Amino acid sequence: MSDHKTSRSEYIKSAIAIAIIVAVVLGFFFGLQFALNTNVPVRVVESGSMCVPFDGACDGWSHPFAQTLHIGDIIIIQGVDPKTINTDYPNSDIIVYQNPTNPTATPIVHRVVASYTVNGTLYFQTKGDGNGTPWPAPVSPSEYDSNTLWNTGQGVPANLVIGKVVMRIPWFGHITLFLRNNPWGLPLVIALIILLLLVEFIIPVIRKKSQPPQEASVGGEVQKFTLQNHSLPSSVYPIWQLT
Is 98:160 a contact under the CB 8 Å cutoff? Predict the structure, then answer.
């Protein structure tokens, strides 16, 4: 009986630990949303449009801390007042924005190269650091995203700006891209979760069921149980109980 209670207690503790981990992860994500003032505080760089090659390499491994972005970088995004965005190219901010001609597409992460205002609306001209003339060289208007991606010449309106990049973590985003770009990435994650559950819950139960039952000992505890629960001849009762 005590073994059963112990096993049940262990399962409850494991379930509580898993619930705490999930709560911490979710709390951290929602906490970032609140602290950084954006619904999308974390993203992974998926394209090489921001990568400026050094010595012919543009993989992010040989120069991970350059002032630009590489495929596989994890970027931290902060929601800001568009009026505070630094437009002083080449030291301008990198922003995350929705494509003006396709707002539901994957957001674009490019550097601001210029800004202007029309009828009270603020617009940003942007460009990938690795597109056309590599950053930090001067940029011609023909290289703006508005003339190469959506071909209207009109920049990104302020209301489509999600935020600016305030931090980048190199390399670690490759894990997400690997799982996302491989057809067996999701099955692999599911298999790992199932394996964890097997190791934590199922295997211990099978092992306990396969163990042979323990034989009752003839120790003091068994004798004590017999004296307390069975009628015995008066000759074995303590003398103070005789009448």
Answer: yes
Average pLDDT, stretch 113-118? 97
**228 within a domain of the structure (yes/no):** no
What is the model's pTM?
A: 0.70
Distances 15 to 51, 69, 86 between C-alpha atoms, Å: 44, 40, 48
What letter would DSSP give residue 143?
G
Tell me the per-residue pLDDT of 175-232, one tens digit each, with 9 for 90 and over.
Answer: 888 887 777 766 777 888 788 777 766 666 666 666 666 555 555 554 444 445 555 5
CB 140 within 8 A of CB 133: yes
Q: Does 243 reside within a domain?
A: no
Q: In what order do the strands lie in the sheet with 156-157?
A: 42-44, 74-78, 161-169, 94-97, 108-118, 121-127, 156-157
Using 50, 70 and 90 to split pLDDT, how confident is the model at 243?
very low
Secondary structure E strands in 91-237:
94-97, 108-118, 121-127, 156-157, 161-169
Domain enclosing residue 98, as ranges: 39-171
| DSSP 8-class letter at 83 | G
Are 141 and 32 in a shared domain? no
